[in-house]
């Protein structure tokens, strides 16, 4: 049962927004492209890394809100395969912030019954980062609430290529190299095997790109873009995204049942 008192204080903007949300039609999986940390810092004449540091508060609030809303999955894009091209000091700071976050937030993840898992080419990360990730994953493995996925050293194309190689090895091992694979089998070998696809993809800072994020999985996701920069993203922005999501008509390539009935009547009329 969702406890709305933990999501908004009476009389707040959050409460007004929460009233507009149909709690029975929430997205099950929300994925977020956290963007705009650099611009947030530049606007304050601060080094870029300060934007990333400030972004941690948004991560904490967004994940906690998702857990309180009892969403199934939240996936945050924290570091892409392309992000290695950034200045060394920025990459090192991002990794340091991640380790700090994991250490400090583990208790909160446990309190909120959150299961944590990283996705991406995790073996390409520094061993100290891998150790922290493994620790958090193991400690939270028994939790049954929100699944919180962090995409690290992640690329959508890299995931598809890794999946192809994984499947080829598997079929070779089983001497089934002439097998024909289908979409369901392919999905079951992605980094996100057994995790439902995102219904809602949020991108902050106003850019209209998917930036190589969950390319296979977002095939039918609704996309919500907000101009808000990631370090300014708060609970109310997640509520706004959900309100926008609920206003969309999701047809998965079909037509609305009402529209289908109309077509049928027209055909019978001969019109
Ligand atoms: C994009 O902003 C953001 C990132 C590349 C990193 C996101 C990382 C964090 C919020 C902190 C660490 C994460 C966790 C989960 C603890 P940008 O730097 O590309 O911004 P810009 O486009 O304005 O330059």
Describe the overall structure:
By secondary structure, this protein is α/β, with parallel strands linked by helices. It has one domain (26-155, 196-270): Undecaprenyl pyrophosphate synthetase (3-Layer(aba) Sandwich). Helices cover 45% and strands 13% of the residues. The protein has nine helices and six strands; from the N terminus they run αβααβαβαβααββαα. It has helices spanning 13-19, 37-43, 48-68, 88-111, 127-140, 156-173, 183-187, 235-246, 257-269; strands at residues 29-33, 73-80, 115-119, 147-154, 200-203, 222-225. A six-stranded parallel beta sheet has the order 3-4-2-1-5-6, with helices on both faces. The longest helix is centred in the middle third of the chain and has 24 residues, at 88-111. It is globular. The protein binds farnesyl diphosphate. The site of farnesyl diphosphate has 20 residues, from α2, α3, β2 and α4. Residues 34-39, 52, 55-56, 59, 76, 78, 83, 94, 97-98, 101, 150, 205, 230 line the site of farnesyl diphosphate.
